[in-house]
Amino acid sequence: MAISNTQALGKSPKPGAFRFKLPAEARIFMVLLGVALIFELLGWIFVGQSFIANKERLIVMILQVSVIGIIAVGVTQIIIMGGIDLSSGSVVALTAMVSASLAQTSDFARAVFPTLTDLPVIAPLAAGLLVGLVCGLINGTVIAKTAIPPFIATLGVMVTARGMAKWYTQGEPISMLSDNYAAIGAGINPVIIFLVTALVFHIILSYTRYGKYTYAIGANRAAARVAGINVNRHLILVYTVAGLLSGLAGVVTSARAVSGQAGMGMMYELDAIAAAVIGGTSLNGGLGKITGTVIGTLILGTMTSGFTFLRIDAYYQEIVKGIIIVVAVVADQYRQRNRRS
Amino acid sequence: MLSLVPEKPLTTAPSQPPVAAQQLLIDVQGVRKAFPGVVALDDVSFRLRAGTVHALMGENGAGKSTLMKILAGVYTPDQGVYRLHGREIALTSPLDALENGIAMIHQELNLMPFMSIAENIWIRREPLNRFGLIDHARMYQMTRELFAQLSIELDPQAKVASLSISSRQMVEIARAVSYNSDVLIMDEPTSALTEHEVAHLFRIVRMLREQGKGIIYITHKMNELFEIADEVSVFRDGHFIGCKQVEQLSHDEVIRMMVGREITEMFPKTIVPIGEVALEVSHLTLDGVFHDVSFSLRQGEILGVAGLIGSGRSNVAETLFGVSPASSGQIRINGQPVTIDSPRTAMQHGMAFLTEDRKDTGCFLSLSIQENMQISVLGGDNLQAGFVRQQALDAMCEAMSGTLRVKTPNLDERIENLSGGNQQKVLIGRWLLTNPKILILDEPTRGIDVGAKAEIHKLICKLAGQGVAVIMISSELPEVLGMSDRIMVMHEGRVTGIVDRADATQVSIMTLAAG
């Protein structure tokens, strides 16, 4: 602390006490660069080509984690507020099913709703977002009103939403979607949607009351209440926003695949939590940035691309991913402890 | 002093030569313990003799609890010598203390609710059968024998969760006795007991005394002191004041030893015009916590609230501010009856509440000073098209921390990195930004240094001068006496008196607080 004080006063730091302090996101960005460089090096050694200097690979790298990224923007807010959301992956599946069912063309004889075909693209989009919003609203309301741990409440919604996704068409996939709907997920659109979402919520978290209350509740819920914040209402609001973003992720997923399947979004919730945590969001609440989460998401994408590039089995990928998540959390705890002492 | 000891039969202790030093179970000399910003104990000595009940008395914050925690191995002293049976020891943990024959019965009960009584008592020492599994039958038998010895009538197989608070206390005591400890430390053991149960407890205590054990008994209650204790040590402000035989003491002498000091600190109390009634509370009740609290408060007035910890003073403040809404009674603000069901509504009525515990209910430790200070004013004029007007807010915070002299070069610093006094100033700043008409301060100067204390006192007086109605809860009698226009005293959830500044003395307040 003494160090940053002297810097702030514009005095020269004491000799020996100097320590260059980067913002947390810059450190995570260094990790991203480090990971990319390792793959670059291994690339030249084992594959004989560059990992980074390949535009297509870079696009795929971001594209494959865009949906995770959209979810992670919501999950980051929940974790900053001191909560957790396990339901996002299942909400993606349920949303994908519902919105896909309203995006079918009349060319298809066995549409889910034969009378509701060839609808304008706004219909499936709005329905999907609404499904996500309702799921988030349920999460938030249950957590706020019954005071059961978020882990349990969202676990319940996770299982239920997955069940509903399967029940919706008795397990049948939904196909023959309109071109306009498919366009939502075409090309680099998911990347654009992800980055715009991240930017919007970065601004909201930094410059609005919504953001300030989110940090305050995560930092100290009891103090937030005494300071006059309607904590329960804010809990519901943030879970609803996160649900809405999961819904958006579901729409993008089904649009990109041009189908709806009940198995979509499997384990996405864990990838999203991992992206947030790797990006420096503290599971203790009160700390975290959307920018960090974006970089965390890119780290996940880089690793997936890197392993594929090196033609290493997907199994190893999962093993290493697991280890990295734990290391990220340990690093977070360690950082917290250092601050305190 | 020593004459007392040989009169007691030492039934369990082996026959020892009657040398005084060996009758001393505990002999602590020159102990010092400091916490950041506070010296909790300074050069304190304490002796416990076998076969006596030794009471510890003093105001809140006098250092009793710290001493007790050092004796029980919870804290390690910074300085000083700790002798047990004449041998110098350094305890490393409560478990270590237990193994050295020192058992503590905590004020906060430390039982595992979903395990049986017997499991709670014999945990870590469960009797095993020949397969190495726990022998429940024998464990229950051992518990029954222990209970018979203490005439406790409880089913060893019952779950602790199903027991009343007093029964749990009995289980705690039985557990302490089961360790065959030489020293038992009891921290206000009767606070949750009925009269009948207190009598039972005292029978147990006397029996243990007959067995030659030393019992350290912490209490605020005068009548208990005279009923059960042989000796009493009095503490004040972290210093050891004296140790006396109880039979040589009178009630008034004990109180004088406890409050003793003159008001040496200067309080900048200024006499300001008292205005209209701002707050009127009648028959306010929170079931099971406090009852029938009535008082009124005028603009410019400082109402001090005194009482021991657990007297309900902080609970009244929490209820006024809507943290735990009242079960009955009426609150009027500026003559209008109001319902306060959340801190938010309280704020809408112009109230502000600085809580007792900065860490638990005040600071957002991971956030900056600025974010901490402005959290309660992120609305109204400070919002523009949904965005907070950050520059205006920053300027307000900058000005406020200048007024309050918050010592930090940078408001972006995390509040965690500030000293207690400066954290307190930031929290006071948070409430002042809301421009309150009624300001409730719960322990506004706890754990902060003298300089900052004086500044906060000055500020409170200045606010009163501006017509703010102030309620100030404090455990420090000189502060209450020095700052208040009137003092409300509470004891066990009831108001025992409201005293005018002119009539208030330390002794009169302490007498009311002791019930």
TrEMBL record, chain A:
<keyword id="KW-0997">Cell inner membrane</keyword>
<dbReference type="GO" id="GO:0022857">
    <property type="term" value="F:transmembrane transporter activity"/>
</dbReference>
<feature type="transmembrane region" description="Helical">
    <location>
        <begin position="28"/>
        <end position="47"/>
    </location>
</feature>
<keyword id="KW-0813">Transport</keyword>
<keyword id="KW-1133">Transmembrane helix</keyword>
<feature type="transmembrane region" description="Helical">
    <location>
        <begin position="235"/>
        <end position="258"/>
    </location>
</feature>
<feature type="transmembrane region" description="Helical">
    <location>
        <begin position="181"/>
        <end position="205"/>
    </location>
</feature>
<protein>
    <submittedName>
        <fullName>ABC transporter permease</fullName>
    </submittedName>
</protein>
<dbReference type="Pfam" id="PF02653">
    <property type="entry name" value="BPD_transp_2"/>
</dbReference>
<keyword id="KW-1003">Cell membrane</keyword>
<keyword id="KW-0472">Membrane</keyword>
<dbReference type="InterPro" id="IPR001851">
    <property type="entry name" value="ABC_transp_permease"/>
</dbReference>
<dbReference type="GO" id="GO:0005886">
    <property type="term" value="C:plasma membrane"/>
</dbReference>
<feature type="transmembrane region" description="Helical">
    <location>
        <begin position="121"/>
        <end position="144"/>
    </location>
</feature>
<keyword id="KW-0812">Transmembrane</keyword>
<feature type="transmembrane region" description="Helical">
    <location>
        <begin position="59"/>
        <end position="80"/>
    </location>
</feature>
<feature type="transmembrane region" description="Helical">
    <location>
        <begin position="151"/>
        <end position="169"/>
    </location>
</feature>
Automatic annotation (TrEMBL), chain B:
<keyword id="KW-0472">Membrane</keyword>
<dbReference type="InterPro" id="IPR017871">
    <property type="entry name" value="ABC_transporter-like_CS"/>
</dbReference>
<keyword id="KW-0762">Sugar transport</keyword>
<feature type="domain" description="ABC transporter">
    <location>
        <begin position="272"/>
        <end position="511"/>
    </location>
</feature>
<dbReference type="InterPro" id="IPR027417">
    <property type="entry name" value="P-loop_NTPase"/>
</dbReference>
<keyword id="KW-0997">Cell inner membrane</keyword>
<keyword id="KW-1003">Cell membrane</keyword>
<dbReference type="InterPro" id="IPR003593">
    <property type="entry name" value="AAA+_ATPase"/>
</dbReference>
<keyword id="KW-0677">Repeat</keyword>
<dbReference type="GO" id="GO:0005524">
    <property type="term" value="F:ATP binding"/>
</dbReference>
<comment type="similarity">
    <text>Belongs to the ABC transporter superfamily.</text>
</comment>
<dbReference type="InterPro" id="IPR003439">
    <property type="entry name" value="ABC_transporter-like_ATP-bd"/>
</dbReference>
<dbReference type="GO" id="GO:0043211">
    <property type="term" value="F:ABC-type carbohydrate transporter activity"/>
</dbReference>
<dbReference type="GO" id="GO:0016887">
    <property type="term" value="F:ATP hydrolysis activity"/>
</dbReference>
<protein>
    <recommendedName>
        <fullName>Ribose/galactose/methyl galactoside import ATP-binding protein</fullName>
        <ecNumber>7.5.2.11</ecNumber>
    </recommendedName>
</protein>
<keyword id="KW-0547">Nucleotide-binding</keyword>
<dbReference type="GO" id="GO:0005886">
    <property type="term" value="C:plasma membrane"/>
</dbReference>
<keyword id="KW-1278">Translocase</keyword>
<keyword id="KW-0813">Transport</keyword>
<feature type="domain" description="ABC transporter">
    <location>
        <begin position="26"/>
        <end position="262"/>
    </location>
</feature>
<comment type="function">
    <text>Part of an ABC transporter complex involved in carbohydrate import. Could be involved in ribose, galactose and/or methyl galactoside import. Responsible for energy coupling to the transport system.</text>
</comment>
<dbReference type="InterPro" id="IPR050107">
    <property type="entry name" value="ABC_carbohydrate_import_ATPase"/>
</dbReference>
